[in-house]
Specification:
Elements (H helix, E strand, L loop, with lengths): L3 E6 L3 H12 L5 E7 L3 H11 L2 E3 L2 H5 L6 E4 L3 H13 L3 E5 L6 H14 L3 E4 L6 H11 L6 E7 L15 H4 L3 H17 L3 E9 L10 E8 L4 E7 L10 E6 L2 E6 L9 E6 L18 E2 L7 H14 L8 H20 L3 E2 L1
Parallel strand pairs: 1-2, 1-4, 2-3, 4-5, 5-6, 7-10
Antiparallel strand pairs: 7-11, 8-9, 8-15, 9-10, 11-12, 12-13, 13-14
Helix pairs in contact: 1-9, 4-5, 5-10, 6-8, 8-10
Length: about 350
């Protein structure tokens, strides 16, 4: 069985917690062969645990001849240079989100991948959540009717931490919106199968004392006419943010909790009807019991690695491509522009 040989640049953080142990190691068509991080203690631990080669310099893992694909999970400001170097060295790249600090950098990354005939993908693993795939299927079949509105929430408590790159605009590009809102808007586009047409956004640094937003609300209009709301905050305690996903259409609603996030769990209920009656002047709403949407959980990081590896093996477009990353970047930067200019921004 063909297995893609993987290396990891930035082996701490999300790679250490999730993508290596839950994604690369159990993936049926992937093999971890090398890791790199500037923190030697992280490298030494992973080398001991997995029996792989370890590096503290990016150039060495990029030049490792056994590495076919690199997963890049470093701070955002490093994505562009590391991806370009990796592509120049003939490596396929799965880069964490957002793809870069600017649209121009992201487009250059895509252009380089095309020139080298290599795969470039972005880490939006929530597309692979079994619930989200089911919601997309239900919308495709018309079970929701005509999509009317969607809301996606991803928030957490993220207080000031010394040296945290997500709290530095020069290293992360922004705060809660660019770090978490990108997942939310991508999920709404993915499920409704339409692109954003225009964006309105309001940001605030309300609670924490750092130079990026800790509170963000983005309103969007999709090409199919539906509306969307994304709220992503670093200012809400973890137990208070339920990470809700709400989908509304002319036949009812699909309401989920906990499907947006890093785990494959969560639950969802559908309140759908084949027939919708006339206007009810009394607005009587019976407390009807919805139908639970049951799926077989599958780790989203494992699915992400397996699907990217399949794209390499079968020589096809990655399921979350570099072009998807460019588009996601355009939406996010339009949202920041909307906040600065105080008006809607078309895409």
């Amino acid at each position: 069985m063909r297995k893609v040989k993987w290396g990891v640049i930035g082996a701490g953080g999300i790679a250490y917690r999730r993508t290596i142990p839950e994604g690369i190691i159990p993936a049926w068509n992937a093999e971890l062969v090398a890791v790199m991080d500037v923190r030697k203690e992280i490298v030494d631990e992973l080398v001991s645990r997995y029996g792989v080669r370890g590096y503290t310099e990016e150039e060495r893992i990029i030049q490792d001849r056994d590495v076919e694909a690199l997963y890049i999970a470093t701070p955002v400001y490093l994505h562009y240079s590391q991806t370009i170097k990796a592509l120049e060295a003939g490596k396929h790249v799965l880069c964490e989100k957002p793809l870069a600090l600017s649209v121009e950098e992201a487009e250059e990354m895509v252009k380089k991948a095309r020139e080298k005939k290599l795969k470039l993908g972005m880490g939006l693993m929530m597309r692979f959540h079994r619930h989200h795939l089911k919601f997309r299927e239900m919308v495709s079949k018309g079970e929701l009717g005509t999509p009317v509105m969607g809301r996606a929430q991803l928030s957490c408590w993220y207080p000031p931490i010394e040296g945290a790159w997500r709290q530095d605009p020069d290293k992360g590009g922004g705060g809660s919106l660019i770090d978490m809102g990108n997942h939310c808007i991508d999920i709404l586009e993915f499920i409704f199968q339409t692109r954003v047409k225009e964006v309105t956004c309001i940001l605030n640094t309300l609670i924490h004392n750092y130079p990026v937003e800790d509170t963000a609300v983005m309103l969007v209009k999709f090409e199919n006419g539906a509306l969307g709301v994304v709220d992503s905050c670093f200012s809400i305690p973890d137990h208070g943010s339920r990470n809700r996903l709400e989908l509304y259409g002319t036949k009812g609603s699909i309401l989920a909790e906990g499907t947006i996030g890093q785990s494959p769990g969560g639950e969802a209920v559908a309140y759908l009807s084949r027939e919708v009656g006339g206007y009810d002047a009394q607005q009587t709403r019976e407390m009807v019991e919805g139908e639970r949407i049951e799926v077989e959980p599958y780790n989203t990081y494992q699915a992400e690695i397996e699907e990217f590896s399949r794209a390499i093996i079968e020589d096809r477009q990655p399921p979350v491509s570099g072009e998807d990353g460019v588009w996601n970047q355009k939406i996010l930067l339009a949202a920041y522009e909307s906040h600065r200019r105080g008006r809607r921004i078309p895409l």
